[in-house]
Amino acid sequence: MELLTLTFVQYAFIGGIAMAILTGLLGPFVVQSRQSIASDMFAHVALAGIGAALVVGASPWWGALPALLIVSTLIWWLLDSGKYSPDALAMFFLSGGLALALGFVHVARDTVFSFENYLFGSILTLTLTDLLAIVGATLLVALVVWWLWYPLIGATQTPRYLVPFRHTPQLVQLFFFWLLAIVVWVGIKTIGGLLIGALLVIPVLTARHWAASFRQLVLLSTVASALSVVVGLLLALYVDLPPSSLIIGTAIALFILQLGAGFKLTRS
Amino acid sequence: MSNPVISVQNVSKAIAGRSLLFDVSFDIAEQSLVSLIGPNGAGKSTLVKIILGLDRRFSGTAVVRSGERVQYIPQVGMADQQQLPLSVYEYISIATSRLYGAKSTAVDFADTLAHVGVSPDTLHQSYTSLSGGERQRVAIARALVGDPTVLVLDEPLAAVDYASRAGLYELIRHLQQDHHMTVLLVSHDIDSVLPLSDQVLCLNKSLHTDCHPSAFTTANDVLQRAMHHHC
After folding, report:
1. Is the residue at B186 inside a domain?
2. Which residue on chain B is closest to A81 by alpha carbon?
3. What's the gap in Å between the CA of B150 and the closest CA on chain A?
4. Who contacts A225 (Cβ-Cβ below 8 Å, separation ≥6)?
């Protein structure tokens, strides 16, 4: 337990719990809108932003944020046109983002830089500035979700048709994409761009059979997500394995546990 | 018809040379119940999208009278195992947001549910656990919360068992007559809509005339006319 008194460990727990709140809040909307793959697409776009930041000598993590916000708006606009299928667009930006990122890093000629930290996370290296940005992003996302609670449920459940003559569902979907972009931005710093999707989706799948309402689903998903982060990080202090894999491993274990509990309840 | 609630004039739409609608014209009078019928692929959904302002790529005009509040009730699907939990309260609340154009949020959901014939006890139950008929009535309750003057219902019987159909149509008729709403019903269940409608629009890409229901003797008659373009 002595390890818990170390500053970097405390930062990891605070950042991790903020991440859990973000994914717990937004995960149900992501799963409901059947756009789970979008987080992966955004993560690859973030890599392109990181590469561009390296070229101009800016902070890589902060460079990812404008790239995410601009490209998420572009993706929303392309999807809204109805001309392109979501899976084709996902592959377009997923591969395109990665290709651009590789190109930028080559141009930057930064021999020390490695994408690994952003792909698989570096939660144990958070600084106070990182932490403040993560907590700020969490508060912002929580505020917008609270403000747009029912419109977000509507826009991700029955897009367009519910409100004739108004652009509300489309605009709310744009807000949803921006929220997802912010969650991915925090995710690449903490749990990793390639693993953030797991924390958005698995806790929702774990919680869904135990919730009777969307509000309960968000609460239970957040609890499952926070539990995964706390147990994963505690394990990482004693087991020589990457924290991200232990966090996602715990989330998967929780899913299997609830499957077993549900099966037992059905049998009895 | 002077100042109709909905006026569609010479509407045509084609995609890649394939005609979806051709020269469709009709008016819908205030407080009437109009059924839009036709076989699959007749262009019913396309026409509804145009009327709702969701599809602007067409020639002709489709106008809803200024000041009318239109609520669209999409087809209620069969119970979807993949759908995430959503309580009836939450399902109705989606329509109460000012962003979604609700006139007032001070609506008693329990009263609205009772009004459409669903027990107020279901308010905190999961929407997906309800029967098809109940879900259709809850969908109507959600539309009523938006205080509409025009209701557009898409295949309201799709997920409803035969025994519940008469009650559902009674509810729609009640909304039209007692609440002075204009109702546009999209359906391929001709048998059920025929005795209910003030006006029947038979569509099969084009609509030659719109007819009073007494012009038909049987549902098959309607279908045949719709199929062969001479309503």
Report:
1. yes
2. B55
3. 11
4. A19, A20, A21, A23, A24, A27, A199, A203, A251
Query: Does the beta carbon of B76 lie under 8 angstroms from any beta carbon of chain A?
Result: no
Residue B36's Cβ-side half-sphere holds a number of Cα atoms within 13 Å equal to 29
Asked if residues B51 and B201 have their Cβ atoms less than 8 Å apart, the reply is no
Domains of chain A, CATH where assigned? 2-262 (1.10.3470.10)
Q: What is the pLDDT along chain A (268 residues), one digit of tens a residue?
A: 777 888 888 999 999 999 999 999 999 999 998 888 888 899 999 999 999 999 998 888 999 999 999 999 999 999 888 788 888 999 999 999 999 998 998 888 776 777 888 888 888 888 999 999 999 999 999 999 999 898 888 888 765 556 655 667 788 889 999 999 999 999 998 888 888 999 999 999 999 989 989 999 999 999 999 999 999 999 998 898 999 999 999 999 999 999 888 777 766 6
Number of compact structural domains in chain B: 1
Q: Establish if B22 touches chain A: CB-CB under 8 angstroms.
A: no
Domain containing B225 equals: 1-68+150-159+182-231
pTM score: 0.84
Kindly provide the ipTM of the predicted complex, given to two decimals: 0.81
Gap from B94 CA to chain A (nearest CA, Å) = 5
Q: What CATH number is given to the structural domain containing B224?
A: 3.40.50.300
Please tell me which residue of chain B has the smallest CA distance to A217: B85
Chain B nearest C-alpha distance from A69 (Å) = 23
Q: Whole-angstrom Cα distance, residue B135 to residue B140?
A: 9
